[in-house]
Amino acid sequence: MSEVKIPKDDLQQYCEAILGKSLPEDEAKIVAETLVDADLRGVTSHGVQRVAGYLKRLEEELIERSTNVQVVNDTYATALLDANNGWGQVAAKKAMELAIEKAEAFGTAFVGVRNSNHFGTASYYTRMAAEKGYIGISMTNASPMMVPFGAKEPSLGTNPISISIPAGEGVDTIVLDMSTSNVARGKIMVAKKNGESIPRNWAITKDGKQTTNPDEAWEGYVLPMGPKGSGLAIIIDILSGVLTGSLFGKRIPRQYDDPYPQRLGHFFGAINIASFGDPDVFYQSIKEKIEETVSSEPSEGFERVLMPGELELMKTKSREENGIPISKEIFNELIETGLKYDVDINQYLSAKLAE
């Protein structure tokens, strides 16, 4: 058995039960939902394989059990929230909800979060905005495990950014969600757990050498997506970290190695399309943009051209129908984590697992 397929609702309830042993019920639900949503979309690096690591940080008192979000600054179209070392997903969800509320009244809004923690996938929050008809923007800084372009020493996180754009009724949302590195560092963690080698352009060793060994890569540093990825990571660090008063660059403790709260920063935006013109005209133009993109003649080696987020949407539809594939190694880790918190996975499985 190389993997098992678990129904989305079963996986959600199981992870929620584990997290609920340590977190308030509503916060456990939010965190579990973001992790399962990542696996549903095929973003395994930010999926349920994070549960054990999250709880380890909680046990080491590096993150609070409940999230006390406070408003630090508040204007008509901006706000700054303090997560007080609470759960990144909880603070981020509140921040995007506030950005949407302000954008409804004032056209465009930006909300920053300081003193936070890992918040999962950036697109989870931008899709919140798009579902309500707003353009959503989300970004965060992260542990300094990426080298700037041309450097041997890390001073950047993989610093992801997401933008989601609603495309009108009956048309799939355009979802850009990308790290500024060649790969999210969590994918190295997945390869490490599964005993798999990695591509040579993912990371370098501590000595600055290329490697395909995930253990060496985990001890080393990920590579930026060229000079453009490096530059974008720097800007995201400034908006998420410097602007919000969070830690940034080398000052951020490493998530899995340093015994200190991370105090990450996030930055969110919401744009009310109606503030710029007739939404119906916008949606018609979006459909034309989508059509001219996907109807482009594919180059050699490609079957067709995809819109941002289309591949993840295809995976979502398949996994909602057939279950979410979880590797044997990660599945066993989930079972062990559940037993540690007196949660039996068999109580949450609605059917025999597909292999």
TrEMBL record:
One annotated GO molecular function: oxidoreductase activity
Ranges that cross the membrane: none
Domain of life: Bacteria
Keywords, in A-Z order: Oxidoreductase
Keyword Transmembrane helix in annotation: no
Cross-referenced InterPro entries: Mal/L-sulf/L-lact_DH-like_ah, Mal/L-sulf/L-lact_DH-like_NADP, Mal/L-sulfo/L-lacto_DH-like_sf, Malate/L-lactate_DH-like
Family (UniProt): Belongs to the LDH2/MDH2 oxidoreductase family.
Protein name: Ldh family oxidoreductase
Organism: Oceanobacillus bengalensis
